[in-house]
Amino acid sequence: MGSTRMHRTFTPGWLAALLLAAVVAVAPAFAQSTAAGQNRVVMQVSDADPGKWNLALNNARNLQADLGAANVEIEIVAYGPGIGMLKADSVVGNRIGEALGSGVKVAACENTMRGQKLAKADMLSGISYVDAGVVEIMQRQQQGWAYLRP
Amino acid sequence: MGSTRMHRTFTPGWLAALLLAAVVAVAPAFAQSTAAGQNRVVMQVSDADPGKWNLALNNARNLQADLGAANVEIEIVAYGPGIGMLKADSVVGNRIGEALGSGVKVAACENTMRGQKLAKADMLSGISYVDAGVVEIMQRQQQGWAYLRP
Amino acid sequence: MGSTRMHRTFTPGWLAALLLAAVVAVAPAFAQSTAAGQNRVVMQVSDADPGKWNLALNNARNLQADLGAANVEIEIVAYGPGIGMLKADSVVGNRIGEALGSGVKVAACENTMRGQKLAKADMLSGISYVDAGVVEIMQRQQQGWAYLRP
User: Fold this and answer.
1) What pLDDT is stored for residue C29 in this prediction?
2) For helices A12-34 and B12-34, what crossing angle results, to 10°?
3) Do B89 and B122 contact (CB within 8 A), yes or no?
4) C-side interface with B, Cβ within 8 Å?
5) From CA A53, how far away is CA A106, in angstroms rounded?
6) What are the backbone angles phi and psi of residue C147, rounded to the nearest 5°?
7) Could you give phi then psi for residue B146, rounded to 5 degrees?
């Protein structure tokens, strides 16, 4: 009698698969917000003030100490008047090295570097670069990272 | 024999429609978080420091230069000691005019204005007003805007 | 004839229940982001500057005045050089008492206290304590709180 049916009936397994497919289909739209539960912090350094540079590095160290370095992603973005933090002659150069070694990402703004005629050769080694510090900080927040301005 | 069945069977199309309805039903609850992917930045200016005012304006200009002015919404909110940025005699008055012309929204806190006995006639033309700067900054973040404190 | 079928057919009610179950199953993952619509602000105090301490307290008061104290949750987190705001001899001690009385939560960083050899007996009464100020500020943002750095 199955031959007389044009439509088939569904087993629970069939339905479960369909529901799973639906969930998978909509998940990407929400990925950004669900990722907000992760431990991720973007720190802004935009002051020409070594005291602030040390505070930022202290904050990073405290986040790692409290949560475990493996359990928190930290990115320090230096731009504008804060770019001096990442120059080769920075007074916190050795601490930047330690931060990089512990897994902190440290990024310099290339917009700022152009404005101050700084080349990568003028900067600390091991750091990374972003086109525009403010865009990086905005995008990290869009991706669910917490924001911290030491 | 179909006449003997009290419950109907479902075609794949029927099921897909039901699943779609379910997704549509839950989507509004997540609208706010999905909107977080847009390029929107609220900037806080709360220092009586023309250096910070220029930094805020530089940051706005860099966001527009990097992303295209049409692709990023920017709102500068001045309040507390930062209100001087938007007074008619502000040292950055001409730059505020340029920012407004390029599509940046610039808002003064009316709470602060009352406290400092400032009327709209004392302020730069073309700016907008919000009841309370801190409420505006909170609400923009709730709406998914990134936060930047220059 | 039901006995001849190995698989059963589904009624609309059965399907609706399944869909509801699916929605309920995925909802917790999104709870954090949907909660972002609430009025909740975490304020960072990390400067050794009584002017900033007063600004933070002004901001809290303005949020409550504008939204109604019952309609906004506010938490002030003092850490690093800002810890002095919450010491027993703080110049804003009486204002902290008022803020606590109006429902503002005020938290001191125990990491900072250890570093400065401060015990709870050295601090204002009525305040609360967090292990690490920066972790608290990060987690509040993850929970959907807006961030404000006065």
Assistant:
1) 47
2) 10
3) no
4) 1, 9-11, 15-16, 19, 22-23, 27, 30, 33-34, 36-39, 41, 55, 58-59, 62-63, 65-67, 72, 144, 146-150
5) 12
6) -115, 140
7) -75, 160
DSSP state for residue A91 in the 8-state scheme: T
Residue C71 has pLDDT above 50, yes or no: yes
The arrangement of strands across the sheet holding B128-130 comes to B128-130, B105-109, B73-78, B40-45, B146-148
End-to-end CA gap in chain A: 74
Distance CA B18, CA C19 (A): 8
Strand order in the sheet with C40-45: C128-130, C105-109, C73-78, C40-45, C146-148
Question: In whole angstroms, what is the distance from residue B65 CA to residue B61 CA?
Answer: 6
Is the Cβ–Cβ distance between A74 and A96 less than 8 Å? Answer: no
Q: Which of A91, A47, C36, A7 is nearest to B9 (CA)?
A: A7
pTM of full prediction above 0.90: no
Q: Tokens for A18? A: 């369909």
Chain A residues with CB under 8 Å of a chain C CB are 1, 9-11, 15, 19, 22-23, 30, 33-34, 36-39, 41, 55, 58-59, 62-63, 65-67, 72, 144, 146-150
Q: How far is CA B77 from CA B66, B87, B132, in A?
A: 22, 13, 10
Three-class secondary structure of residue A115 per DSSP = helix
Place of tokens 């999905």: B34
Task: Quick: pLDDT tens for A41-84.
Answer: 999 999 999 999 999 999 999 999 999 999 999 999 999 999 99
Are residues B83 and B47 in contact, defined by beta-carbon separation less than 8 angstroms? no
What the block records as the tokens of B11 is: 């075609």
Tokens of B91: 């040292």
Alpha-carbon span C83 to C87, nearest angstrom? 7
Contact between residue C36 and residue A36 where contact means Cβ atoms under 8 Å apart = no
Separation between Cα atoms, residue C123 and residue C62, nearest integer Å? 26
DSSP state of C48: S
Q: Which residue of B has its CA nearest to A35?
A: B33
